[in-house]
Design a protein that fits this description.
This protein has eleven helices and no strands. By secondary structure, the protein is mainly alpha-helical. The protein folds into two domains: about 60 residues, SP0561-like, CATH 1.10.3910; about 180 residues, no CATH class. Helix 1 packs across helix 2 and helix 2 packs across helix 6. It is elongated, with a radius of gyration of 22 Å. The structure holds fe (ii) ion (FE2) (2 copies).
Length: about 250
C-alpha cells in the first residue's frame, strides 16, 4: 500500500520497480531510500498525492500482460514495441544507474566484472531491439497487410527478397534471454541480507529485468514468429500462384 508516510527503502524492498518509477520522476533511490515518500516529494517540489497516483498506475501497467495467441498480430507487434520503448527509456537507465554507483562489496567478488559486462550487454541489447524493429517487425506488419490485400505483390516480393523470416528465426535469441551472462556472473541474482543495500537493489532490479525478458522472448519466439511463419507460407504460395497465372 502506497502512503505518503511510508519509507522508500521499505516500499522498494516490496517492489523494486517502484525504485525505477521514482527514478523516472527524478527521485534517485540511492539518495532517498531513507526518506519517506512525502519527504522525497517535498525535496523535489512534487505533490505526494500526484506521485502516488503515478506510481499506482505504473505498477498496474507493470502487471499488464496480453494474450498474444489470440490478439491480432499487429496488436502483438505494437505491444512488443511498447515493451522495447520501456526497456530502453526506463529499465536500462535505472539498472545502469544502480550498477554505475555500485561499490565493491566484500560479500561478493563479481562487482568489477558486472561493471565491465553490463555496458556491453546494454549496447548489444539496444542494437538487437533496433534490428528487430527495422527488419522482422516491419516484415511481419507488411505480411499482415498483404494477407488483407493492402500491399501490392511487388512490394511484398521485394520484402521477401530482402529479408528471410526463417533465417531470422534460426538466429534469433541464440539464448532465450540476452541477460544469461549476467545471471551467471551474479550467481543467479542470489541476494542476502548481509549484502549492502545497494547490491541488494541491483540484484533485485537485474532479476526482475531478466524475468521480464523471458516473458518478452517467449512471446517473440513461441507466439509471434510461428504465427508470422504461417502468414509467410500463405503469402508465398499466393504470390507464386499469381505469378504463374500471369
Ligand atoms: Fe524484442
Ligand atoms: Fe528479440
Amino acid at each position: 500500500m502506497l502512503t505518503p508516510r511510508r519509507n522508500i527503502a521499505e516500499l522498494v524492498r516490496e517492489n523494486i520497480l517502484l525504485g525505477q518509477h521514482l527514478f523516472s520522476l527524478g527521485i534517485k533511490l540511492l539518495d532517498y531510500s531513507n526518506y519517506t515518500l512525502e519527504e522525497a516529494c517535498k525535496k523535489h517540489g512534487l505533490n505526494p498525492e500526484v506521485v502516488i497516483n503515478t506510481l499506482e498506475s505504473a505498477v498496474q501497467n507493470d502487471k499488464h500482460s496480453i494474450d498474444a495467441e489470440i490478439l491480432p498480430i499487429s496488436v502483438v507487434v505494437r505491444y512488443l514495441k511498447h515493451k522495447h520503448f520501456e526497456f530502453v527509456k526506463k529499465r536500462l537507465p535505472f539498472v545502469r544507474y544502480l550498477i554505475h554507483n555500485l561499490r565493491d562489496d566484500l560479500s561478493v567478488d563479481y562487482v568489477s566484472d558486472l561493471k565491465m559486462v553490463y555496458p556491453l550487454f546494454e549496447e548489444d541489447f539496444i542494437q538487437h531491439i533496433y534490428e528487430e524493429e527495422d527488419t522482422v517487425f516491419r516484415h511481419i506488419l507488411l505480411l499482415n497487410r498483404s494477407v488483407k490485400n493492402m500491399v501490392n505483390i511487388s512490394e511484398m516480393y521485394y520484402s521477401f527478397e530482402k529479408f528471410s523470416l526463417s533465417s531470422f528465426v534460426n538466429n534469433h535469441h541464440k539464448h532465450p534471454n540476452e541477460m544469461e551472462g549476467i545471471r551467471q556472473i551474479t550467481l543467479n541474482f542470489n541476494s542476502c541480507e548481509a549484502y549492502s543495500q545497494q547490491l541488494q537493489y541491483t540484484l533485485k532490479a537485474l532479476k526482475s529485468f531478466y524475468e521480464e525478458l523471458e516473458v518478452h522472448a517467449n512471446i517473440e519466439d513461441n507466439i509471434l514468429l510461428p504465427r508470422a511463419i504461417e502468414l509467410e507460407k500463405k503469402q508465398l504460395a499466393f504470390i507464386k500462384k499469381t505469378i504463374r497465372q500471369n
